[in-house]
Amino acid sequence: MTATVTVPVPAMPRRRKDPSEIRQPESGEKNVLLAAPRGYCAGVDRAVIAVERALEHYGAPIYVRKEIVHNRHVVDRLSERGAIFVDDTHEVPEGARVVFSAHGVSPAVHEEAAARSLDTIDATCPLVTKVHREAVRFEKQGYSIILVGHEGHEEVEGTMGEAPDSITLIQNPEEARAVELPETDKLVWLSQTTLSVDETMETVDILTQRFPHLEAPPSDDICYATQNRQVAVKKIAPGADLVLVVGSANSSNSVRLVEVALEHGAKDAHRIDFAREVDEEWFHGVSTIGVTSGASVPDLLVQDLLRLLADYGYGDVEEVRTADEDVIFSLPRELRKDLKAAGLETSNKKNGADRNHELR
To answer: pTM of the predicted model, to two decimals?
Structure first.
């Protein structure tokens, strides 16, 4: 009996509508409000450059546990250069070199890597490391810890792994209203670094009403870049008929930007990975388009989007800046040590230039 083989038929590329097919706004005016800050933060920049420098210095392959950052374009480009992305350390050959992603890992992952004699480069964002250290310190001091975050996110898994017997995860206001906690005078909250500031504080306010002795972390856990990008979106959203956020679906801060835009006055908002994913139907009757990108997005993807928008008449671009960022994090200690021993540059810059947008 002859087996039947089904050959998949490649999808036909979608025909883009001609600009003449798009209903024009009543005002006849078209413009773009470009949020700033947007795109790469210092932690993402550091992690991506760490993989690039590791490939240059040690040669391919370099294994990376999970996605180094949550962006399809970045992961694809690094894969082309010789990075191999794996879901867990047991997939890395014994004795090989592995980079831990910017989202951080639990102590158990470090132990697994040591058991397999892996050479590790820890590219955890220093702001995530701060939360890890807070969890360890509060557990040692006898606190019960509430972690505000999203179940299954790599950062949350890493933080909970630092104090698994002391942390209760709360994902949203509804869970805050329902959670039952052990009787204790020592109760503190921490948070995932990439959350919506507004929703986090709503959750914390509910918890504080229920548990008046709940203490706050000594410093803000939500990272400066996440907050800055949300503030910028809040600024442009009220005047935007449509907000487009460049970022991947598994990027928590990118998804939050869409929600923040809608909550603060945008008539419509969508997240896209690439300009080619834009649906021109979104442009019908639209006068002002807001544009931003998540903290793991190289700016070249935003520039691609701006070129597409210009093709549809949105060539008038006004940058709306709400903050300036000049934070730079050093490369991971393990990588700096080996680069220094080889007499090589140990900064996270190349020839003094910003490497933020090299991943083409």
So the answer is: 0.89
